[in-house]
């Protein structure tokens, strides 16, 4: 069984969905500390004037050590603003007419959600469904996580059971203790984020590291475009 573990991100880029698709089980590790100016509550879309952030406003003042799962949305109306930005900047996209109504229904659904994790999980599940990704998405709260960093990962993998491959992003090479995986006969498979096919985009230049929203409005829910060459 292949397993990946990662914090949830808001409307993440194609590489995130590629990692989900390569896994049998994908654990959303939202028991981690929330980090500001990160991908947890924001992502990028393209505009005629360059990249802009779509950011979900959250309560962080005085809550430095709060978990991602404990992070509350602070302002109503954010969903309508994000949807309007998407509509204005992608109304000429090739798949706008067929895909935008789907995205619109998602934003209408989440506009009254209280917690950031609820929003992120909702988008992840629905985007996966549209791509035909059948990976099991599991919240980390299901597990009794012990230790930190490598110990925490191993703790989750052992509770899942029958894991032979752990899939990870390359940034984790800085802290993962590889011998701990080897002791348990778990192979570590590193994601390679440098080999994705391009697709037709609006606005100047090509950008790989933008929200999945860009890809689906330009090219539809084409799973070949989120797979490495």
UniProtKB/TrEMBL annotation:
Q: Which domain of life is it from?
A: Bacteria
Question: Which Pfam families does the protein's record reference?
Answer: WbqC
Q: What is this protein called?
A: WbqC family protein
């Amino acid at each position: 069984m292949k397993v990946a573990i990662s914090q949830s991100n808001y409307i993440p880029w194609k590489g995130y969905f590629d990692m989900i698709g390569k896994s049998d089980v994908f654990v959303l590790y939202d028991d981690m500390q929330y980090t500001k100016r990160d991908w947890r509550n924001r992502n990028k879309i393209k505009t005629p004037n360059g990249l802009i952030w779509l950011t979900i406003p959250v309560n962080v003042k005085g809550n430095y050590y709060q978990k991602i799962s404990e992070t509350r949305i602070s302002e109503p109306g954010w969903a309508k603003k994000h949807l309007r930005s998407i509509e204005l900047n992608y109304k000429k996209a090739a798949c706008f007419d067929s895909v935008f109504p789907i995205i619109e229904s998602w934003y209408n659904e989440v506009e009254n959600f209280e917690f950031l994790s609820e929003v992120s999980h909702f988008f992840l599940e629905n985007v996966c469904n549209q791509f035909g990704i059948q990976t099991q998405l599991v919240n980390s709260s299901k597990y009794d996580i012990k230790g930190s960093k490598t110990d925490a990962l191993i703790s989750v993998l052992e509770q899942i059971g029958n894991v032979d491959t752990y899939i990870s992003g390359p940034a984790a090479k800085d802290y993962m203790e590889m011998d701990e995986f080897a002791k348990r006969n778990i192979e570590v498979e590193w994601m390679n984020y440098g080999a994705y096919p391009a697709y037709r985009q609006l606005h100047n230049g090509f950008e790989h590291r933008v929200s999945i929203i860009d890809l689906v409005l330009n090219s539809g829910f084409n799973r070949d475009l989120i797979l490495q060459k």
